[in-house]
Amino acid sequence: MISIVKAMRKVILDCDPGHDDAFAIMLAVRHLEVLGITGIGGNCVIENVTRNALKILELIGRPGIPVYRGHSRPLVTELVTAPQFHGKSGLDGPELPEPAAKVRDGHGVDFIIDTLKSVDGVTLIATGPLTNIAAALNRAPEIAARITEISIMGGSASFGNWTPAAEFNIFVDPEAAYRVFNAGLHIKMCGLNLTRQCRITREEADRIRSIPTKTAAAAAELLGFYLRSSEKVQGVPGADLHDPCAAAWIIDPSLVKGIPMHVTVELKGEFTRGMTVCDYRHTRGSDPLRDICHEPSAAPLGEKPNAEVGVELDREGFFRLLFDTLAGYP
Ligand code: BDR
Ligand code: CA
Fold first, then answer.
1. How far apart are alpha carbons 225 and 90 in whole angstroms?
2. 34, 75, 276, 330: which sits with the fewest CB atoms below 10 Å from its CB?
3. Axis crossing angle, helix 214-234 with helix 46-59, rounded to the nearest 10
4. Residue 195 CA: which ligand 1 atom is closest?
5. 153 CB under 6 A from ligand 1?
6. Distances from the Cα of 197 to the Cαs of 190, 203, 240, in angstroms?
């Protein structure tokens, strides 16, 4: 009997763990071939986010995946962090095991460039500010053609979270995001309009707690902290699992419905800096955001789409994937 084993997609995960980044790592490592993880200053300072990535890899028994330090701050502005969501360490909550592995020598941006040049068929998953990816494109523009696809947690086709208009990852480094969205890449954008559909409830966190593995126990503790902080800051029950959506869309494309749109990034607005301006005028007639945009637009078609913007999540399918993933780890 011939058994056909489907090759796992090769990915680099660029992230700033971060509670929801931690879940993106868990999904990606289980279902994709993670060539390496590059840290980026975002939710917390670079030393912490890279250390947090190592801790998650230690927890799930995959300490051999290389972790590199990327940029510590945005291209042109100072770093803004998010301790109100992720605590002082960037990953407050459980006592995670001390990682035996160390951060690898070399810069994360070099790792991204060298890997893309030497390995075919690499996809990027970016769940932090886009500084490392933009820096790689600036240094070696030829890598654009080598990126199979990039799945980005960032932006919003509706409203923001860090400001009324801007989502955190894009707000932190809008210049980098502008570079990435205008680089001619195949982009999947998981904005807040999508990831808010992935708000985990306390009941779902309890279900994770009942999975008898040490990974699930730590995951439940991470969620305990993240639920408390999110509910305190946002005043609504539950916590948005933003980043794992970007990994899930690559693992199983049927989990997210995307619509091609032209997306660019506002760099100047007094109130809108960091906003992802999503042109969905061409979707008139079947407007996926009709709940917030009741009028079919009379505007002419906009620029050619440069991104597939996630608009609908198969929530049940997503949580099935998450629960199965956590149950599969030690
Ligand atoms: C994004 O901001 C960070 O705090 C999360 O990790 C996520 O990547 C959501 O706006
Ligand atoms: Ca993140």
1. 11
2. 330
3. 140
4. 9
5. yes
6. 11, 16, 8
Show the tokens assigned to 61.
Answer: 């028994």
Question: Does ligand 1 come within 6 angstroms of the Cβ of 249?
Answer: no
Interior CA angle at 54 toward 9 and 240, to 5°?
70
Closest atom of ligand 1 to 243 CA is: 8
Query: Where does residue 161 rank: exposed (0-12), middle (13-18), buried (19+ CB within 10 A)?
Result: buried
18 lines ligand 1 (CB under 6 A): yes
Query: Phi/psi of residue 117, each to 5°?
Result: -75, -30
The closest-lying atom of ligand 1 relative to the alpha carbon of residue 128 is: 8
Residue 260 buriedness (CB in 10 A; 0-12 / 13-18 / 19+): middle
Among the listed residues 242, 262, 282, 294, the single catalytic one is 242
Q: Residue 18 and residue 83: Cα distance in Å, rounded?
A: 9
Q: How many CA atoms lie within 13 A of 316 on its CB side?
A: 0
Does the C-beta of 115 come closer than 6 Å to ligand 1? no
Q: Name the class of domain 10-328.
A: alpha beta
Digit-coded pLDDT (tens) for 53-96 = 999 999 999 999 999 999 999 999 999 999 999 999 999 999 99
Domain ranges of the chain: 10-328
Q: How far apart are CA 176 and CA 134, in angstroms?
A: 5
Q: From the CA of 82, which ligand is nearest? A: 1
CB 65 within 8 A of CB 40: no
Residues 121-172: tens digit of each pLDDT: 999 999 999 999 999 999 999 999 999 999 999 999 999 999 999 999 999 9
240: DSSP letter: E
